[in-house]
Amino acid sequence: MRNYSNSLLDPDESVILIIDEQPAMFFAAEGKRESVMNNVVGLAKTARSFNVPCILSTVESKKFSGDLYSKVKSLYPKVTPIDRTSINAWEDNNFKRAVSETGKKKLIIAGLWTEVCVTFPALSALEEGYQVYIVTDACAGVSKEAHDMAIIRMAQAGAVPVTWMQVLLEFQKDWSNQETYTKVMSILKENGGVYGLMVEYAESMLKN
Question: What is the predicted pLDDT for the residue at 134?
Fold first, then answer.
């Protein structure tokens, strides 16, 4: 049993929201899009590995933005993303109900674009008393300035900036937690970049 302080992310108190990670949104995003794509997959795997509810949402998927990123969608084959017309996901009754029904108060949000589809629901949720965490490296804006200013705006309102690997390791908490250890190491090797390479190297050295 893990004992988390109130200031740390607890998987039992958290829900992960993945919003509008869709082709049309990626096309207009500035920055390392491949990195964002990798990071949101790592975040989705984190949710699945720690049995954290993961709410998937898209905007105008049939008319404009396309389906949710396939590598995220494949992790939740039985989940139909909540498709919306509202720019602010929090103004969609189905989305808001899905969040409420989890009973969780710590919202961990990733999405495109940072300045719109992440900022709007983040500010709305903060106003209603939720604790909000923004996974900055699983988000992107139409420009670096747009992304950076959105993070500053949300942080000033009370949201907490985090990264996807920080969420993963904060959930794990202790390497002696064998229930999730193997899953965490697998995620690190598949999505952890250079750190994942280091894990593979360390494992190979131990075998020798």
Answer: 98
Residue 9 CA to residue 12 CA, distance in Å, equals: 9
Q: How many other CB atoms are found less than 10 A from the CB of residue 153?
A: 15
**What tokens were used for 97?**
């109900």
Which residues form the catalytic set?
117
pLDDT band at 4 (very low <50, low <70, confident <90, very high): low
Residue 104 contacts residue 133 (beta carbons within 8 Å)? no
Closest CA to 115 of 147, 143, 161, 153: 147
CB 126 within 8 A of CB 132: yes
Bridge partners (DSSP) of residue 133 are 108, 160
The reported pTM is 0.94
Q: How confident is the model over 62-100, as pLDDT tens digits?
A: 999 999 999 999 999 999 999 999 999 999 999 999 999
Residue written as tokens 């996807």?
164
Return d(Cα 126, Cα 124) in angstroms, integer: 5
The angle formed by the CA atoms of residues 156, 172 and 22, to the nearest 5 degrees, is 60
